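Milestone 3.1: sequence recovery, worked example.
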C-alpha cells in the first residue's frame, strides 16, 4: 500500500485539505494506494505552475529537438520498466496481464512517435496579393487541461501528454480516480528525462471537484477529455465560459458487421475480440454485432461456443482472458444492463456473475461474458453504452439494411465490416458515419493514425499527426515588403 501525492511544479505535494482517496485492486477489493483528493486550490497551484512554465522559464526556449529527446527518454524509461508498469496496470485496472503488456508497448511507442514528430511541425507560406509575404506559423496552444479515464490508464496519459510536450504546451493532467498509479509512477521519471518543473503536472481527485476545477480555470487554454458523453456535455458547457479549445473522445455503440461472405473463423474471433477485449471497457467496443441472416445462426452458435471458453479471473493469473470490471459503479451499471437485456432480447450466454472464482477474487467486480441475440436496434442494450462484456447480436438482410442499422445510433466512434468482397467493404466504408472504420479487423488503434468520433462520440482527433494538431494554434503573419510608408493616410 503506497500513498502518492500530486506532482506540481516538479515537486510532490499533498492536497491542501490533506484528504485522500482509496485506490482499489478490482479483482480483490484490496486498497492498494491512496492519492490526494484535490480541490480547486490544488488545481489552481498546478495551473499556475503550468502557466509559468509556458510563459517564462526554460520551456518556451526549448528546441523541438530537445522536446523530442525528452519524449524518447520517457519512451525508453517505459520500455525498460515495461514489466513493472504492466503489473501496475493489471493490479489497478484489472485487465489481463497480456493485455496490459500490449498497452505498455503502445504507450512507450506513443512517446517515441511524438518525439519524432516534434521536429516535423511545419508552417505555410501563402500566396497573398501585393508585395507581401504571408506566413502561417504553428505555435503551441498553451496550458492544456487533460482529463482521462480508467480503461487504458497509461495509454490515455501517453496519448494526451506526448503530443502536448511535442507541441511545446504545458499540461495539468487528472488521472481517473480509480486508476492513478501508473501515471504517477511515470511522473517519477520526468525530471531525469529533462522535463522542466511545471511542464507536466499531475493532480489527483474526483471529477466533480478536481476535474471540474480544471475545466473552469481561466488560465487553461485547452481541455482534452476522454470519458463519458454525459461528462463530455458538461465539459463543453463549462468550458464555454472562457471559450477554451475542447477535444472530446467519448463513448460509442459501435457496429461490428459480418456479411455472409466473411472468412468464417476470422469472423468468430472478430466478434469476440471486438467486445470482450479489456472486459468490454473500450470506447470503440463492437457491442452491436450485425450478422447477415444467411449465416446468422451458424455464426451465433460458433461465437457462443467459443465465448464459453473465455476464462474470467484475476488479471495476474496467466490463464485469465478476462479480468474484473474496474469499480463498483461500473459493476453495478453493467449488472443493471444485464437485467434490462433479459427483458428486451434472448440471453444465450452469461448474464451475471461467474459461478467459479478463485478464493482471493470472490469479492472482485467480475461479470460473465454475455451474449444477447435477436436484439432489436431500438432496444436499450443496442442504443446505450454499457461499457462491459455484453454483446448484442442483431440480424440484417443486405448491405442497405446493414448500413442503415449501423448508422441508426447517436454515436459514431467506430465500425467494422467483415467480407471478402473489397467493393462491398468500400461501399460500406463510405456509408458508415464513424471516425474509425476497420475492414476485416476490429480494435487496432495504431499510434500513427488518427482516432476520434463522429456525432455524439465527440470531436477532435488523437494519435497520428492529427493528434498533434490539437495542441497547435495557427498564427497568420502578414509582412509588408515595401520600404515606403503605407499610402492611404498621406
Ligand atoms: P466519467 O466520464 O465520469 O470519467 C472520466 C474522467 O472524467 C475521470 O477522470 C473523471 O474523474 C472525470 N470527470 C468526471 N466528472 C467530471 C466533471 N464534471 N468535470 C470534469 N471531469 C470530470 O466516466 P465514469 O463515470 O468513470 O464512467 C461512466 C461511463 O462513461 C462508463 O460506463 C462508460 O460508458 C463511459 N466511459 C467512456 C470512456 C471512453 O473511453 N470513451 C472511458 C471511461 C468511461
Ligand atoms: Mg462519472
Amino acid at each position: 500500500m503506497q500513498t502518492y501525492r500530486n506532482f506540481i511544479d516538479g515537486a510532490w505535494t499533498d492536497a491542501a485539505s490533506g484528504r485522500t482517496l482509496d485506490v482499489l485492486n478490482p479483482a480483490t477489493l484490496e486498497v492498494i494506494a491512496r492519492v490526494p483528493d484535490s480541490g480547486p486550490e490544488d488545481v489552481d497551484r498546478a495551473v499556475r505552475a503550468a502557466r509559468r512554465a509556458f510563459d517564462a522559464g526554460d520551456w518556451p526556449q526549448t528546441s523541438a529537438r530537445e522536446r523530442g529527446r525528452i519524449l524518447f527518454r520517457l519512451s525508453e524509461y517505459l520500455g525498460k520498466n515495461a514489466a513493472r508498469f504492466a503489473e501496475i496496470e493489471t493490479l489497478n485496472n484489472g485487465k489481463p496481464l497480456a493485455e496490459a503488456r500490449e498497452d505498455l508497448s503502445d504507450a512507450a511507442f506513443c512517446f517515441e512517435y511524438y518525439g519524432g514528430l516534434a521536429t516535423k511541425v511545419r508552417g505555410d507560406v501563402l500566396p497573398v496579393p501585393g508585395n507581401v509575404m504571408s506566413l502561417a506559423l504553428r505555435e503551441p496552444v498553451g496550458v492544456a487541461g487533460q482529463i482521462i479515464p480508467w480503461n487504458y490508464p497509461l495509454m490515455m496519459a501517453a496519448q494526451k501528454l506526448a503530443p502536448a510536450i511535442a507541441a511545446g504546451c504545458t499540461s495539468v493532467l487528472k488521472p481517473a480516480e480509480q486508476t492513478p498509479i501508473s501515471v504517477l509512477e511515470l511522473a517519477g521519471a520526468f525530471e531525469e528525462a529533462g522535463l522542466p518543473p511545471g511542464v507536466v503536472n499531475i493532480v489527483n481527485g474526483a471529477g466533480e471537484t478536481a476535474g471540474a476545477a480544471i475545466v473552469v480555470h481561466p488560465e487553461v487554454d485547452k481541455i482534452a477529455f476522454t470519458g463519458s458523453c454525459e461528462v463530455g456535455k458538461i465539459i463543453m458547457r463549462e468550458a464555454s465560459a472562457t471559450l477554451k479549445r475542447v477535444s472530446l473522445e467519448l463513448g460509442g455503440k459501435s457496429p461490428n458487421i459480418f456479411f455472409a461472405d466473411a472468412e468464417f473463423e476470422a469472423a468468430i474471433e472478430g466478434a469476440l475480440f471486438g467486445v470482450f477485449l479489456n472486459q468490454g471497457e473500450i470506447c470503440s467496443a463492437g457491442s452491436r454485432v450485425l450478422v447477415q441472416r444467411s449465416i446468422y445462426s451458424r455464426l451465433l452458435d460458433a461465437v457462443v461456443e467459443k465465448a464459453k471458453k473465455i476464462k474470467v479471473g484475476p488479471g495476474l493469473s496467466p490463464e485469465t482472458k478476462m479480468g474484473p470490471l474496474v469499480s463498483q459503479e461500473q459493476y453495478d451499471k453493467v449488472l443493471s444492463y444485464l437485467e434490462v437485456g433479459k427483458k428486451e432480447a434472448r440471453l444465450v450466454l452469461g448474464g451475471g456473475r461467474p459461478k467459479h472464482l478463485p478464493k482471493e477474487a470472490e469479492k472482485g467486480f467480475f461479470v460473465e461474458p454475455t451474449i444477447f441475440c435477436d436484439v432489436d436496434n431500438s432496444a436499450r442494450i443496442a442504443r446505450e453504452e454499457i461499457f462491459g462484456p455484453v454483446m448484442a447480436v442483431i440480424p440484417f438482410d443486405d448491405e442497405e439494411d446493414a448500413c442503415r442499422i449501423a448508422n441508426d445510433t447517436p454515436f459514431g466512434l467506430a465500425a467494422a465490416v467483415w467480407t471478402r468482397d473489397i467493393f462491398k467493404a468500400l461501399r460500406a466504408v463510405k456509408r458508415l458515419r464513424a471516425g474509425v472504420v476497420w475492414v476485416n479487423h476490429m480494435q487496432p488503434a495504431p499510434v500513427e493514425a488518427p482516432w476520434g468520433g463522429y456525432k455524439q462520440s465527440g470531436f477532435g482527433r488523437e494519435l497520428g499527426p492529427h493528434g498533434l494538431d490539437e495542441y497547435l494554434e495557427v498564427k497568420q503573419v502578414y509582412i509588408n515588403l515595401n520600404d515606403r510608408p503605407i499610402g492611404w493616410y498621406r
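The first helix runs from residue 40 to 55. The first strand starts at residue 2 and ends at 3.
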